[in-house]
Each structure stands twice: as structure tokens, then as C-alpha cells.
Amino acid sequence: MSPADPWSGASIAFAPLLPWGLLVPLVGVAILVVLVALLRRARGAGWRLLAALVLALGLANPSLIQEKREPIKDVVVVVVDDSPSQSIGQRRARAEWALADLTAKLKTAPDLELRVVRAGGDESGTIHETHLFDALNRAMADVPRRRMAGAVLITDGQVHDIPDPVSKLAGIGPVHTLLTGDHDEGDRRIAIVQAPSYGLVGKSVDLTIRVDDMPGRQSPDAAVTLRQDGGAGRRFRVPVGRDFRIDLAITHGGQNVLELEVEAAAQELTLANNRAAVVVNGVRDRLRVLLVSGEPHAGERTWRNLLKADPAVDLVHFTILRPPEKQDGTPIRELSLIAFPIRELFEVKLDEFDLIIFDRYRRRGVLPQMYLENIADYVRKGGALLEASGQGYASPLSLYRTPLGSILPAAPTGRTLDQPFRPRVTDTGRRHPVTADLPGDRIDGEPAWGRWFHQVAVTPNSGTVVMQGADGHPLLVLDRVGKGRVAQLASDQIWLWSRGFEGGGPQAELLRRLAHWLMKEPELEENDLRTRVDGNRITVERRALEPDPRPVTLTTPSDETSPLTLTEDASGHATATVLAKAPGIYRVSDGTRTALAVVGTVNPPELADVRATGDRLNPVAKATRGGVHWIVDHQTGPRAGLDIRRTNPDRDQSGPTWIGLRANGDHTVTGVTDTPLVPVPALLVLALGALAWGWRREGR
Predict the structure, then answer these.
(1) Which residues 6+ apart lie within 8 Å of 246 measured at CB?
(2) 386, pLDDT greater than 90
(3) d(CA 16, CA 25)
(4) CA neighbours within 13 Å on the CB side: how many for 436?
(5) Which one, of 201, 74, 207, 208, lies nearest residue 146 by Cα?
(6) 187-284: which CATH architecture?
(7) Going by DSSP bridges, is the β-strand pair 384-388/484-489 parallel, antiparallel, or unpaired?
(8) pLDDT band of 333, cuts 50, 70, 90
(9) What's the alpha-carbon Rg for the chain, to the nearest Å?
(10) Fewest 10 Å CB contacts: which of 142, 147, 561, 652?
(11) 237 neighbors 224 (Cβ within 8 angstroms)
(12) DSSP string for 638-672
């Protein structure tokens, strides 16, 4: 019923003057007596029957009940797919065209309420899948099912939250789908079938990939390029439609980003799914450390305790307990309990060590010059060396006067500084990850850690001074030599911190960071560009020893670029955050370094198959009596657009050129009128008259 005629729902109601339990038996007895009289052909029986019926009608007291009804609008929900796959081709433009067409037609219907919701473009979480039915359920959460006229989904058909079973959608009316893509689309994609989450540094891991051409094979094989950590690409051929195994070497600890890209096919919808990436965390099986102590001293135990406390460290400690120049007649063969394998350590197996530490070492002829030259070559090839200077470093027996002097960053001046001082972090050191934010460091005022009393005066020739000691002399110098790294500590008194002298200091944290920096852990790179991904939030981080105001360039999976300005803090740590609008691989570059961010799962369902299809939603249309239509088929012609019809619930809800929305006719009652149908007094008079006439007929 339309709003112009609000009166409907007329019905007859009874308000008996006697209880139904008494009225019905009385009327039944009266009718029975009259029927007996009729069977005996008694005179006046018909009038008595009329009197009984009139009397019964009067006692039943019928009335006409008429309700005043206010029609309630039916609700239709239009869900627009805003997921990343809608950016392909003309899909988004078609979606907006279809929405405008539907809105213009539905808003003119006086008995319809239109609700439009968008799904798939939410920036609050990780982009994994397209959830349209979640959005539909939220939009109709406050609407009773009897008011739902139906729903329209404007999408490419790649929906990942279809209810199972689809019978759960029963009662909401027809669910129609308007597809935004083109018929017979084709695409190529690369997927990672199997990838480990971690691997041992220096070992290889197996990665299984697959290249698929959809809908069918366009070529027997395809060229795939592999890049590791943004480096140079390695190209090889991969068969299409079959799993292919790749052997990859884990070169460093921390995140190893492996990026794969397959060449474009003859038919492509997007190149976003032609790339895939996986992050393999490199872990070290065992850290092999060679500690060479030049002489026994109080700090020797500090190094040993620190290294032995870590179960992942294999320590070989070589200590010179008795200098060769001591002449007491003891044969050389009896100077140690066992023959120490010097040749095996410093020549045969030197490359097997991850870190070499020289602690208070001076030239005494124990290690031949050739072995020290081996150590210098070991560093240049990628090894790590830490030198903690004792008094001997300022003497003619200094390590600096050996082949190691070519790789050590600081030269001795010949002086030692025997005075109390507190180690201080330099301005550059506050930007270096090894010494930045050390516990107890204070920018203004004295550091909150104990004093040292001895330091070797050195002059840095290269490297970076991150800590200074007495009278501002360099205390800790870090340097890169060839492919390796060197750290030099110009004092042997860090053990005072470990003993808690004057409150101690952050020796454990400092030495831990120092060892990890020497081991090239990515988290401790002083000049580095990296990304972190949390859901669809990408955080770009840049660390530099010198202020760098340059913006970085962000490249999306669809190869769109945009500048990104980073905000720097006092520690040289610059950050910026950006929200990813699509799953895939994002590149960040400052012109020198490149970092990758992998948004979404390893194989995002959103990019698994980007072809427009109605196959997923056909069961929904069948279960709800809806339809699946291609927008491109209705955009041209004299009657562009789909026809929209209001249909009865038991009729067809879709046709080749139209979609139906269920007309429920729901309403609310705003008033009721009660009109008596028969005047009781008149009925009583009529009943008495009929009885009297019947008696008169009987008396004749």
C-alpha cells in the first residue's frame, strides 16, 4: 500500500456478550432443537431457526477492525569493491559509473532506502583479501531480514569471504553482482610455493617457485630474475605451470630479502603479481671467536666470561703465560701442558673464525710475522678484528709495528695517559648504533658510569672515533678495511665496569654491540636504509653518521614513484611512515642504498588471480535468486544501464537486462478503529419478533 492510502488491514472481530464457553453450547442446543423441529416438519421451525441465528449473532457482538498503517521502506545495500585489483584497467571507472547509475535510479523509489558501503580499501589493517560480505553484514546489522530488498555487489568477482554455506544469505533478498572487468582476460603470475622462514648463515636454503599463465599456457617457459637484498639480478629460465626449485645462499645474519620477478607475458592485466618476495632470517649456527691474550691481567677474565656466557659462542683462548725472553733454562717443549696448534689456528683454520680479539698483546716472537700477515689478509677478505690496547701498544713492541699496523685505524703516539677519566661518547658516536643510547650516557653532564685510570694515546689515521677518554683522546675507533671490519679500544680497563667499580658501566651492552657490528649484523649498520612492515604500515628508517636531509623515493608494486621526507632525531635516526594501498613489494631508495618492504602475505590472495570472473559469486546468485552481470555489456546502447524492478518475493528476481529488488510491504500500525457491525438492540427485537411469529405459526 502506498503512503497516499494509509488505511488497510480491515478485519472482523467478535466481542461476545457472554463467555464463549457458555455462548457456544447455548447456540448449539438452540440450533439442535430447531433442527429436530424442522425434521418433524413442525410449523414455525424456520422462524425459530432465524431467531436463534439472530440471537447468536447479537450475542457474538461482531465489529469491523480497521488498522491505520505506515509503510516502512525496504533497504537495499550496494557494496563497492575498492580493493587494489579494482585499479586494473577500466574497473574503477566502471564501478563508479555503475554506482552513479544505481544511485540515480534507486533514490527515486519512495519505498526504498539506499545504503552504499565501500570495502577493500580500509587502511587500518594488513591488505590480504577482499571482504565484501563482512561489509554487507555490517551495513544491514540493524535491519530486520523482512525489510531487506536485496544487495548489489560492484566488484571484479575476486571475493574471499563468501559465506559457507551460501544458504546463510537466505532471507536478505536477491544478491546481484555487477562485474567491472572484461570478458576473457589473461594474466601471468609468479608464486612462492615453499620458502623457509630462516636459514644458517653461510649455508643454502631451498626455495620453490611456480609461474602460471592464466587461463592457459602462453609459452613453455619464462625468464625469472632473482635479486637478494636489492643487489644485482640473477636470471634463469623457469618452466610455466610447474614447480621449480632454487638453491639460495644465506650470506648474512638478520633479514635476507629475496625478490623474484618474471618477465611479462603476451597478455597481462598487471605486473604487480609478476613479482614475489620472501624474507629469510639468517641465523648463525655458532660464533667462532679466537681470543689472543698477550699476558695475564685483571681484564682477561672479563673477556672470557663475556664470551663463555653465550652458549652460541665457540671460544678458543690463546694466552701467553710466560714471555720467551724470560731465561730460566726451561726447555721450550715444556713451556705448555700441551703443544698449542699455532699453525692450525693462524694458517690452516684461520678463515673459520668469525672474530679475532687481541687483548693486551705485544710482539714477543710467539706469533711469526707471517701469521700476523695472514690475519691482516683475513680482515681484508671480510674478517673481523678487535684490538684492546695495553701499555705495550705504546712501546716499540707495539702491534702497530707488525703487518697488522696496515689495518689498525689508530697509531700510537708513544705516550700512555695514567689519570682518572670517564669514557665519553662523541657526537659522532651518538649517531653510531654501537654507542648510541648507551645506558648511563648523558648529553649534558658526566656519564653515569665509573672511571678508568689508564689509556694509550693514539692518533686516528682512519675510521670513526665513537668514544673518547682522558683529555679528549680517542678511546674507541671503528673502521672498515677491505671487506672486513676493525675495532680498536685504546685501553685495557673495561674490566673495571664489569667489577662494578664506582657503579660499573655498560660493558656487556657495549661489547655485545661491538661484536655484532664487527660481525656485520644489519641492525648495527651505521649508514643504512631499512624498512619495517606492520600490517599495511611501512616504516622507513635511515641511519647516517652525517645529517642527510634528502628525501627518499618510494616505488609501489605498480611502479608508481613518490618522494618521502624523513624526520631525523638527535641520534641520527630518521624515520617516516606510509600506508600501503596494495599488497606487493615496495622499494625505498636514497640514490645509494635500496631497501625492500614486503606488504601482505607471501602469496597475497588479492594478487593470486586478478582476472574478473563471476565463478565465485554464481553460487551466491543461485542461492538468493540474484544475477551476475557484466557492466561492460550495459554501458552502451540507447538504454544504457540495468533496469531495476520491484518484484514480489515469489517471482523471478533477475533477467538478462534487469535486476529485481524484493518488495516486502512491511509496515507499522499507527492507529486502530473499531466499528460495530450490528446494533444489539435491533437484533434482540428481530429475534423476539421471529420467535413470536414462530409461535403464532405453530398455534394455527
Answers:
(1) 206, 207, 208, 209, 226, 236
(2) yes
(3) 13
(4) 18
(5) 74
(6) Sandwich (2.60)
(7) parallel
(8) low
(9) 45
(10) 142
(11) yes
(12) TT-S-EEEEE-TTS--B-SSEEEEE----EEEEEE
Eight-state DSSP code of residue 601? -
Place of cell 645462499: 249
Q: Strand, coil or helix: what is 488?
A: strand
Evaluate whether 187-284 and 287-518 have a shared fold.
no
Distance CA 237, CA 219 (A): 12
Q: Which three cell numbers stand for residue 597?
A: 618492504
Q: How many CB atoms lie within 10 A of CB 85?
A: 29
Other beta carbons less than 10 A from residue 377's beta carbon: 16
How far CA 468 is from CA of 29, 126, 429, in Å, comes to: 121, 46, 9
Q: What share of the chain is helix, strand, coil (3-state, %, to 5)?
A: 25, 35, 40
Hey, where are the domains in the chain? 7-70+670-699, 74-173+624-649, 187-284, 287-518, 528-599
C-alpha torsion sign, points 30, 36, 38, 43:
negative
Cα–Cα–Cα angle for 316, 322, 409, rounded to 5 degrees: 60
Rounded to 10 deg, the angle between the 300-308 and 507-518 helix axes is: 70
The conformational region for residue 140 under phi > 0 = left, psi -120 to 50 = alpha, else beta, is alpha
Residue 232: per-residue pLDDT: 81
Helix, strand, or coil (residue 532) = strand
List the one residue out of 182, 126, 19, 205 whose CA is nearest residue 533.
126
- For residues 629-641, give the mean pLDDT: 82
Helices and strands in the chain, H and E counts: 12, 36
Q: Check if the beta carbon of residue 454 is closer than 8 Å to that of residue 418.
A: yes
> What are φ and ψ of residue 54, in 5° steps?
-65, -40
Report which DSSP code applies to 373.
Answer: H
Residue (of 537, 524, 519, 529) closest to 257 by Cα position? 529
What does the alpha-carbon distance between residue 196 and residue 475 come to, in Å, rounded to a whole number? 43
Return all residues near 518 (Cβ < 8 A) that are at least 6 apart.
355, 384, 385, 386, 485, 487
The cell numbers describing 674, all together, are: 473499531
The fold for domain 287-518 equals Rossmann fold (3.40.50)
DSSP 162: -
Q: What's the CATH code, domain 528-599?
A: 2.60.40
Q: What is the pLDDT of residues 232-262, one digit of tens each?
A: 888 999 999 899 999 888 887 777 888 889 9
Q: Which three cell numbers stand for residue 254?
A: 638478520
Task: Look up residue 627 and give its amino acid.
Answer: G
Alpha-carbon distance of 474 to 453, in angstroms, equals 15
Tracing cell 555490517 back to the chain, one arrives at 138
**Coil/strand/helix, residue 476:** strand
Exposed/middle/buried for residue 472 (C-beta within 10 Å: 0-12, 13-18, 19+) = exposed
pTM for this model (two decimals)? 0.65
The CA distances from residue 180 to 358, 531, 615, in Å, are 69, 35, 14
For the ranges 28-37, 143-152, 424-433, which has the lowest average pLDDT? Answer: 28-37
Tally of CB atoms within 10 A around 514: 21
The Cα–Cα gap between 385 and 484 comes to 8
